[in-house]
Amino acid sequence: MYCSRKGEHVAIIGKSGSGKSTLIKLMAGILIPTEGKILLSGIDLKKIELSSLYKSIGFVMQDSLLFNDTIEENLRYGKEEASMEEIYNACHKAGIYDDIKKMPEGLKTVIGERGEKLSGGQRQRLILARLFLQDKEILVIDEGTSGLDQKTENIVFDSLRAIQKDKTVIVVTHKEESLVWFDKIIKINE
């Protein structure tokens, strides 16, 4: 059993199929354990209302959803009442601000179904910007930086470390070069 502390940055690593995403889904209450317990602040996850849980945890999953709408509306899905300053700050933190600035319609650019008009890296950074905008206590990122080059991933991790010091960050990654960013590393063996 491992317990993460507030402000700690934890990486979960392991081979494909070892259960990393399943562990994240269990921690998020998406899957319910058939035996044993998952504790959040010492409380059995089964005893916590999901709506309460989701108020404190922000997720970027491997298959996070983007809508056939504008970049701005896709970001607002994370926080409807966000100010334009908050949106721009989140885009800077995720390293996508410059890309958006170069688009003819900027934040009003329609990205297509599941973000098909964006590159894979742009989709990931847009989803990460949505996560930054939510400003949750616990950030869970499941392979959310896998399509990013090392320079862009460094921007994202710099933001996570500098801006999210009071937040718990849990990241599933395959990239060993990324492990220097974390306080703790959990390796799942098959």
From TrEMBL:
A molecular function GO annotation: ATP hydrolysis activity
Organism in which the protein naturally occurs: Sellimonas intestinalis
Listed Pfam families: ABC_tran
Keyword Nucleotide-binding: yes
Descriptive protein name: ATP-binding cassette domain-containing protein
Record flagged with keyword ATP-binding: yes
Alphabetized SUPFAM superfamilies for the sequence: P-loop containing nucleoside triphosphate hydrolases
SMART domains: AAA (SM00382)
InterPro entries assigned: AAA+_ATPase, ABC_transporter-like_ATP-bd, ABC_transporter-like_CS, P-loop_NTPase, Type_1_exporter
Ranges for domain ABC transporter: 1-190
PROSITE patterns: ABC_TRANSPORTER_1 (PS00211), ABC_TRANSPORTER_2 (PS50893)
Keywords on record: ATP-binding, Nucleotide-binding
